[in-house]
Design goal:
The protein is an alpha/beta fold. Helix content is 22%, strand content 24%. It folds into two domains: 4-99, Immunoglobulin-like (Sandwich), CATH 2.60.40; 123-325, Aminopeptidase. It is elongated and about 70 Å long. The chain starts with 24 loop residues before the first strand and ends with a helix. Bound molecules: zinc ion.
Length: 326
Amino acid sequence: MTLRRFACILLAGVGTAAMSAEPAISIAFPRAGARLPAITNVYCIGAVATNISATLTVNGATTDVYRTGAFLAMVPVRSGTNEIAAVWGTNVLKRMFTVAQPPPPQPTDKGAAPQPRSQHDPYKDLGIPTNAVFAASPPRGRKPSDVLVMVDAGHGGSDTGTISPHGWYEKDVNLMQARAIRDELRRVGFKVVMTRDDDSYPPLYSRPRNAWRMKVDAFISVHHNATAADSNPRLVRHTTTYVSNAKGLPLAAAIQRHIARELGHIRDCGAQEKSLAVCRNPAVASCLLEVDFINLPEGEAESWDPARHRRVAKAVALGVLDWMME
Ligand SMILES: [Zn+2]
C-alpha cells in the first residue's frame, strides 16, 4: 500500500563523473518539484553509490549512510532550496533540490459534492452481489488440497507502489514475496492462483471480482508500506494486516499472529480495519499484508532478502492453516 504522494521520481547519476570514484546520489524522496507544506518535517530518503566511503550531509547535518548506500536523513527538509553534499577526501559533490510551497486552496466545486457516506454501497463498485456466499468460511474440516487461495502481488506495471531509498519499486518486492507465499502454500498442499505473475497491472477491482468468480476460499494481497511524508519511518515501522469486513478478520488475525512472531524485531500492530478495494469482498475472506516499511533503509534491506520472503511465506501458510481450524 502506498500514498500517492510517495510516488517519487528517481534522480540517479547526479552530475557527470569527472572522476570514476565520484559517488552518485539518488533521491527517492522528496521528488523533484514536490509541493509540500511551508513548514514541514519531511525526511529525505535516498542512496549514495557504495564504491566510495563519502560523508553525506543534508542541509549541513551529517547523516548516516548504510552499508548498502541507502540513507535516511533525519533533518527536516525546508521549503525552498535544500542541499545534499557528499564529501570524500578533498572532494565535494553538491546536489541541490527544491521543495516548492503548495498551491493555494481552490474553492470547492459545489456541483461535484461528494456522495454522502450513508448512501455509499461499499460493494457496488466491485460488481459482486452483497449477499454472495458459496462456501463456509473458514473452510473447516477441508483438506488444503480442497482449499483455493488467491495471492495478489500489489501494484504492477506503471503502478510502482512505494519507491525505496535505492529507487527500487514496491511492485517488484510484492511480486517476489507473493511468489514465495504461493510456493509455500503449494508445498503445504493448497491450491493457489496469482492475480499476476509478471509486471502487469490487473485492474484493482478485477482482483477481488476474479476471486469471487473463481470461488476462492481466501484472498491475500501482498504489499509493503511507506510512511506519510511528515513522519519519521524509523519511529513508525511496524507490521500489520488489514481487513475490511468481518469475513476477513479471522484470516487476517491468524496470518498476522504468525508474521508478528516471525518478524519479532518489528512492532506488531495486529490486524487492523481499513476500507480497501481488494478487501471489501463480501464473498471471500480477504486481507492485505503490509509486511514492512521499505522507505526505511533497514526495511528496504530486509524486504529484498529472499530468506525473509521464505520466512514470511511460512508464517502466512501457518496462519492459513490456523484459520481453517478456527
Ligand atoms: Zn502497496
